[in-house]
Design goal:
18 strands; mainly beta; single chain
């Protein structure tokens, strides 16, 4: 019948119902399941050629956890257009984010995405800094007027 599994080192061809030997290219080994290959650490599978290509490490980068791509070092971010690691520019009133690949504005500052700077949060009367520290919220009994950026007594 059609109910069978292939031995280790062979992969099932469902069209012909046969088992074909797995061709293992250079810089690869048989995978955990025994039905395909995995590239060695420092190599990435090229699905067009079915080969393992070396991962090119740019400056300020290291291999990722799986060893099939690179990650930029802390303080650098990946530029996907040229596959390089660029230094994170940290403006005044900011620091490196948790992941180390961007900046975050200090408390009571908010990111201005047009200028890539940190602008101070202007807190109008009857308002306070929000929980995240990047905007204001109106005190109880007041509502925000987004046009004038003020807090008005609720009606």
């Amino acid at each position: 019948g059609d109910d069978f599994t292939c031995n280790r080192g062979y992969k099932r061809n469902y069209t012909t119902n046969t088992c074909n030997q797995v061709i293992i290219p250079q810089n690869a080994t048989l995978n955990y399941f025994g039905d395909d290959f995995s590239c060695n650490k420092g190599y990435k599978r090229n699905y067009t050629t079915n080969q393992c290509d070396r991962v090119i490490l740019p400056e300020n980068a290291s291999l990722n956890y799986f060893g099939d791509d690179f990650v930029c070092n802390r303080g650098y971010k990946k530029n996907y257009r040229n596959n390089q690691c660029e230094r994170v520019l940290i403006p005044a009133n900011a620091s490196l984010n948790y992941f180390g690949d961007d900046f975050v504005c200090n408390r009571s500052y908010t990111r201005n995405y047009r200028t890539d700077q940190c602008d101070q949060v202007i807190i109008p009367p009857n308002a306070r800094l929000n929980y995240f520290g990047d905007d204001f919220i109106c005190n109880d009994s007041y509502t925000r007027n987004y046009l004038s950026n003020t807090c008005e007594l609720a009606r």
